Amino acid sequence: MLPYLAYRYVKNKREKNQRDMDSDLDSMVRSIVPDKAVISIPGVAAKLGEDSKEYIPGVLSILEKSVGVFIEWRPSEDPDATWVMTSDDGNAEMVHSRSPEEKRDRGARVAFSMDVNDLSSFRNDEPKRGSGGFPSIRLICRDGSSQVPLFFRNSSTGEFIDRLQGYITLRRSHRDADLVIVVDQKSEALAKSVSMLDENGDILSRFMQNPYMTAMTGFSKITSFVQDQVIPSVLNDTDAVTQEEKIRLMRELRLAEEQMRVHSDAAGEFEVVTQLDLPPRPEIYRELPVSRELWNSFKLSNGSIDPMKLHHLKMNVFRGGLNAELRKEAWKCLLGYRQWHESDSEFEKRRTELAKQYHNMKSQWMSVTEDQEKRFSKFVKRKSLVEKDVARTDRTVPFFQGEDNVNLIHLHNVLMTYVMYNFDLGYVQGMSDFASPLLFVMKDEVDTFWCFVGLMEMTHKNFEKDQAFIKLQMNQLRDLVMIINPKLANYLESEKSDDMYFCFRWVLVWFKREFSFLDTCKLWEVLWSGQPCPRFLLLICVAILDSQTNIIIDNHFGLTEILKHINDLSMHLKVDEILTAAEAIFHQLSASQNKLPAHICQYLNIGESAVSSSNNSPSRSDPDREDL
Amino acid sequence: MSILISLFIFDISISSRSLLGFQFFCFQRNTASITTMSGTRKKALLKVIILGDSGVGKTSLMNQYVNRRFSNQYKATIGADFLTRDVNIDDRTVTLQIWDTAGQERFQSLGVAFYRGADCCVLAFDVTNAASFKSLDSWRDEFLIQASPRDPDHFPFVLLGNKVDLESQRAVSSKRAQSWCQTKGNIPYYEVSAKEALNVEAAFLAIARDALARESQETNDFPEFPDQIRLNPNQQNQQNSGCNC
């Protein structure tokens, strides 16, 4: 307790006296008083990424220092400490492949020391019974950043949490039992006193001053939707109001609704929309990846895919993805490089022709001389961007690791040839992210290039200069969140985050930066299947946001903290969980299609406006061809 | 003592906030002043935006300063992200919130919301890449348009010339960079290397000092806050627009 008491002493002194003394005292205390570990828990392992099963052993401590109380995690100092991989059934395997330097480097990268005052909340996940996993804690800071998840391999999290409560007040979220929130007593007390004042205030009139509400009433078509969906869900917030308040508020709202209806009717614009009661989300299971055997069973004798079974095949890809060894063949079809109806011989013939075209375009840029470049600034600009990005694309993936890696040259060639193929679009950052998994799977420049052309057919609008398509998708995403999770939509709007910009990276490169290389492959082939609807990407966004609702709202994250929190989800998302959640959301929407706003049905291609897209290649079933 | 009330002060837990937006706004102000008077969390927050061409080392500079690490495995930045580091300046703890951005212009417009309220803009170029130096004018103009600071002529910029460890490949002389700075109202210039951790610490400390000094001067422009609390003008406007209480 000594250092902490000394710290308190200095702090009290500081509050009482003038500031001049502070620095002297601070440095004095710092030099005299050593740090004191209040608790030190060994066997707390950090998990680097969701798909990595690698844990770095380390020690979690609470330290009283002369400058405050800190939570620290350090990797174990024992260089021989085993790095453990845990398989899904909980059996541990040792990792021997890492060198001591590599271990130190990785450990140092996730080590942290944070002031308890900077802690906003933490997730405390207990393993499912019988799963053999370990309880874990993920600390979330006030700036929205998250520390690496820590797994308690030898103990429960109870003692750590108990000790922590000696310094800060904690309570479990009402909405999510796994979320523990730091309660700032002072502001809690303030909130209480203000809410008491409000007992006698005119809640309703102020309610209507809420900019969100005001804006919504402008859209008369959805007014009743907001009142039926948004308001009750906000009211369901048990933290928010007492029962009596709730009842009174609802009564007053009904009255207001009546008045509004009259008013709007007079203007002749009001349209009553039936309440949007979404059915519960069905339980969805992922299926096994499509095997070569299954894939071949969809083929006719000439090697083309049986058009009668094509939809079925795409659904299989959607539900389970592909076996890794099948990707090389299947991606060509999914990306439209090979047509579904093409026989083996037809494709081989066309492939030879396309290879010629590739080499033609490749020689075009390769033959530009240094002298020419002096008068070819647009070309030089594109070339320099490609060079810079190739050097920093997926360099941690073994396929691209090391100096002078020949795969970097292939990647460079593919991207430069694409610059010649589509010089107007040229090279835009993010394209190298799309190209690298293709090269990893195809292992051949020509095939990679034409697959890349197919992928760009689906995604090139993300890269257009005006960014209109990105903005369109952000708007569509906001509409979807409004329907699926009005409480979150309301919150985002109140925090000026409803431009959804924090999802920009997700949408631009289709989650490439959020998942490991292999998980990205899985996610992409699911998306390329074009099933069950166009814009399934946006439903994945909704699924992830929906899963973060409590963390965002209970931590009271603002604009910057939301962005930080979303950025820090990277590599800590479970691809299968998210895909099932997104599919379940699709079924919810699909079941309510006749109640959904027409534009949503349109871009999800559901309901009456839906046209069968099963026979189209993904690029052709893309609804934006008409949109823009 | 001037304090830019940081977002971190607004971390109050208000039970009825998600119910009634207007209450939230009222609390913000109350809490802000209460917190400041009692002196518990009076950390100043300085928001620093790093802009510059793709590949000049913006992410590396930020990471070197905040995490004291360099890696040649950073990916091209997509979207925006930030890191924070506390620094002590003249016995005050200041939180530097350093924003890293994408280097390709077309991605800039979407991030504007995050750049608003910046206290300092760091322009970065690569001393081995003349083109990245030539772009500085447009980066500066772009920032002034997008972030639209209240007083564009005196908004603090700092210029960093990165990769000075590659002296043999230098394409922009220190003199040339300095003379550019002079034409822009004497912008401070630092030659740094994120890779070798050369001058990075010193440059950011100077950035923090400058921005802080400016904050103090500006306090005088805000006589309506006698206890020398300055709300960020943007935040203030946002609050007013949403709350008549």
Automatic annotation (TrEMBL), chain A:
Interacts with non-phosphorylated form of RAB8A; phosphorylation of RAB8A at 'Thr-72' disrupts this interaction. Interacts with ARMC12. InterPro entries: Rab-GAP-TBC_dom, Rab-GAP_TBC_sf, SGSM1/2_RBD. SUPFAM superfamilies: Ypt/Rab-GAP domain of gyp1p (SSF47923). GO terms for molecular function: GTPase activator activity. One of its GO terms (cellular component) is cytoplasm. Acts as a GTPase activating protein for RAB7A. Does not act on RAB4, RAB5 or RAB6. It holds the Pfam family RabGAP-TBC. The lineage of its organism: Eukaryota, Metazoa, Ecdysozoa, Nematoda, Chromadorea. This is TBC1 domain family member 15. It is found in: Cytoplasm. Its main location: cytoplasm. Keywords: Acetylation, Cytoplasm, GTPase activation, Phosphoprotein. PANTHER family: LD27216P (PTHR22957:SF645), TBC1 DOMAIN FAMILY MEMBER GTPASE-ACTIVATING PROTEIN (PTHR22957). Residues 321-531 form the Rab-GAP TBC domain. The keyword Acetylation applies.
From TrEMBL, chain B:
The keyword GTP-binding applies. Pfam families: Ras (PF00071). SMART domains: RAB, RAN, RAS, RHO. InterPro entries: P-loop_NTPase (IPR027417), Small_GTP-bd (IPR005225), Small_GTPase (IPR001806). It is found in: Late endosome membrane. Keywords: GTP-binding, Lipoprotein, Nucleotide-binding, Prenylation. It comes from the Eukaryota. CDD domains: Rab7. GO terms for cellular component: late endosome membrane; lysosomal membrane; phagocytic vesicle membrane. Its main location: membrane. GO terms for biological process: body morphogenesis; endosomal transport; endosome to lysosome transport; oocyte growth; phagolysosome assembly involved in apoptotic cell clearance; phagosome-lysosome fusion; positive regulation of early endosome to late endosome transport; protein localization to lysosome. GO terms for molecular function: GTP binding; GTPase activity. Belongs to the small GTPase superfamily. Rab family. This is CRE-RAB-7 protein. It comes from Caenorhabditis remanei (Caenorhabditis vulgaris). The lineage of its organism: Eukaryota, Metazoa, Ecdysozoa, Nematoda, Chromadorea.
